[in-house]
Write a structure and sequence with these properties.
Blueprint lengths: L1 H10 L4 H15 L5 H11 L4 E3 L2 E3 L3 E3 L10 H6 L4 E7 L12 E4 L4 E4 L8 H8 L7 E6 L10 H12 L5 E5 L14 H12 L2 H5 L4 E5 L5 H14 L3 E4 L13 H7 L3 E4 H17 L4 E5 L5 H10 L3 E4 L1 H6 L3 H11 L1
Parallel strand pairs: 3-4, 3-13, 4-7, 7-8, 8-9, 9-10, 10-12, 12-13
Antiparallel strand pairs: 1-2, 5-6, 6-11
Helix pairs in contact: 5-6, 6-7, 7-9, 9-11, 11-12, 12-14
The protein binds flavin mononucleotide (FMN).
Length: 341
């Protein structure tokens, strides 16, 4: 295939973050060539699998995970590739530059990435503006977070700001308290602060007129007790469900030398090393509360991985690292494989 034999080897010689922007710039140009849009839209009809989750009809079960299109710049181009849903963000109230570069690294031996982007984004106002011109026929999720400088005691206000500004513009929300790259963020996964954030959103005035499902995105590194607390909070706050999972801070699965891994520095691992952790979290949640709705993400590269996540109890799946390693056909490939099951 063209991607595996030519495009990927070229891109993998470049700095990963530069490759990300170049790839999307090239696809933005290519997608405007007459006939290309028509061709892809037709192809996408073949993987249509309308799925009702949290009151929303998703055109198929495959989504693009948060962090790829943080600013909602490529929603139209990504929808053409067959994703049934695209999660934009994580967005914060004010724009912020993120961590110093380099901050994204490939670990091809493990089909993995390490990133410490740190919520680099244009801020919620810029995203809201772009969402006014969102593509039709694709579900858009808004993944929201807090600015780096906002202390945890005031974090709920940041989530509220993003929620209010995106309400009515996105189909579902994701409260991200699980990125390892914003200092202290994951402490918000604890019962009290989590309840404060989720209740404030779920029972917001805006939800009375137009209820928008809210999901909580969790880390794969939670202890069983912490997961139990989270399930309690999700149930108590009556939000729509859980996205499992974000990147892991565990590096034990990596087959690189200690020195190499240390030279990369801090960051979350995504891709194959997260697969079993994500599956385990999904299975544990389902065992404790079979009624909870779950979106599965972490190390999904093909239809077998997607089916494993769906069979474990996920209603939908998302990819990020698999998109980088497998290429732009991934939604099509998984879509066909799931349909064939
Ligand atoms: C470069 C990069 C940036 C990411 N940024 C975000 C983000 O802003 N918000 C978020 O919730 N998850 C973010 N993630 C996590 C992914 O959405 C996903 O949960 C995780 O990578 C596991 O899926 P994967 O193995 O398919 O990549 C990011 C992942 C990567 C690799």
């Amino acid at each position: 295939m063209l991607y595996q034999s030519i495009i990927k080897p070229l891109f993998f010689k470049m700095d990963p973050e530069k490759a990300h922007y170049l790839a999307m710039d090239l696809w933005t140009i290519a997608s405007k060539i007459p006939g290309v849009g028509f061709y892809y839209k037709n192809k996408n009809k073949q993987i249509a699998q309308p799925t009702l989750v949290a009151g929303i009809v998703f055109p198929n079960k495959i989504g693009l995970a948060a962090g790829f299109d943080k600013n909602g710049k490529w929603m139209h181009e990504l929808a053409l590739l067959g994703f049934g849903h695209i999660e934009v963000g994580t967005v914060t109230p004010l724009p912020q530059p993120g961590n110093d570069k380099p901050r994204l690294f490939r670990l091809p031996k493990n089909n993995a990435l390490i990133n410490r982007m740190g919520f680099n984004n244009d801020g919620v106002d810029a995203l809201a503006e772009r969402l006014k011109n969102r593509p039709p026929n694709v579900v858009i999720g808004g993944n929201i977070g807090k600015n780096k400088w906002t202390p945890n005691e005031e974090a709920y206000k940041d989530y509220l700001i993003c929620f209010e500004k995106l309400h009515g513009l996105v189909d579902y929300f994701v409260v991200n308290v699980s990125s390892p790259n914003t200092p202290g963020l994951r402490a918000l996964q604890e019962k009290e602060p989590l309840l404060q954030v989720l209740m404030g959103l779920q029972f917001h005035e805006l939800q009375k007129k137009q209820p928008i499902p809210i999901f909580l995105k969790i880390a794969p590194d939670l202890t069983e007790e912490a997961l139990e607390d989270i399930i309690d909070v999700v149930t108590q706050s009556q939000i729509a469900g859980i996205i499992a999972t974000n990147t892991t801070i565990d590096r034990q699965q990596l087959s690189y030398s200690q020195a190499h891994i240390e030279s990369i520095g801090a960051g979350g691992v995504s891709g194959e090393p997260v697969k079993h952790k994500s599956l385990h979290i999904i299975q544990t949640i389902k065992a404790k509360n079979p009624n909870l709705t779950i979106i599965g993400v972490g190390g999904i590269f093909d239809a077998d991985d997607a089916n494993a996540s769906l069979n474990a109890g996920a209603s939908l799946i998302q990819v990020y690292t698999g998109f980088i390693y497998q290429g732009p056909q991934i939604a099509q490939q998984i879509g066909k494989g799931i349909a064939a099951q």
